[in-house]
Amino acid sequence: MYDTIIYNVDNGILTLTLNRPEKLNAFTGDMLREMMDALDRADADDDIRAIIVTGAGRAFCAGADLSSGGDTFNADTRDDGAGGLQPDGGGLLTLRIYECRKPIIAAINGPAVGVGLTMTLAMDIRIAADVAKFGFVFARRGLVPEACSSYFLPRVVGISQALEWCYSGRVFPASEALDGGLLRSLHDKDALLPMARNIARDIADNTSAISVTLIRHMLWRMLGADHPIEAHKIDSRGIYHLGRSRDAKEGVEAFLEKRPAEFQGKVSEDLPEYFPWWHEEEFS
């Protein structure tokens, strides 16, 4: 179905593999469209409980495909005539990731630079092979960081570290990415995907899908709140609505009976009526 990615679901875990290994999985318009479609499919599939994103071959993603030469980023030279200011493709992808209803784990198996790195900032957990390399290389290409990374990167690693990496545009090793807070952990390349699956499996086997979707959006969106009262408001709504749900009843009973919980809630049907609360004109 796809030309630039592989979509594989195994026992509730979707693995999306960037699949242009001969080009180090360089990002293209086709890859953008296919990733957007894959995320739409994943959100609509209640059987998918977690998503892993990785790369085929030796790279995760080498950034934008530069085969067009010096005018690669010049929108006014596009063949389709749609010149002028255009939405940044990487930004469209990260905004779609941000809206996703499933937790997303980046399993960075090799070099990740430019959009190949910034796309992961909206993902929830990043782990990497110890041979991976990273770079926010924009200043060395006469560009600025894209894919909403001016929002995400300082929130992930802090403003000072974000500025240092972006000012220099240098490529840095996985150990520095770990020390700087960009990564959760490093692994031998052969152990990377098994570790990502272990993390995803723990979520899929032991949690309520409804809880996980709400938690994902509560934590991400509270990064922009200007007072903890905003968190209190949404916490209160969540506790009220989920406290009446069959998943909450099952979770408590399973704990008291010392058995695994069997959650039945479906993201497509059972999210509380206030979701998505950020679309409300007035919060009350």
Write up this protein.
By secondary structure, the chain is of the alpha/beta class. α4 (149-157) crosses α5 (159-168). The protein has a six-stranded mixed sheet, with helices on both faces. The protein has a three-stranded mixed sheet with strand order 5-7-8. It has two domains: 5-203, Alpha-Beta Complex (2-enoyl-CoA Hydratase, Chain A, domain 1), CATH 3.90.226; 208-279, Lyase 2-enoyl-coa Hydratase, Chain  A, domain 2, CATH 1.10.12. The chain has eleven helices and nine strands. α1 links the parallel β2 and β3. It has helices at 29-44, 89-99, 115-118, 149-157, 159-168, 174-179, 189-206, 209-222, 228-243, 246-256, 267-270; strands at residues 5-10, 13-18, 50-55, 104-108, 112-113, 125-129, 133-135, 171-173, 185-187. Helices cover 42% and strands 14% of the residues.
Largest sheet: 6 strands, mixed
Count the E strands. Answer: 9
CATH third-level topology of the largest domain: 2-enoyl-CoA Hydratase, Chain A, domain 1
The top-level CATH class of the largest domain is Alpha Beta
Describe the structure concisely.
With 284 residues, this protein is α/β, with parallel strands linked by helices.
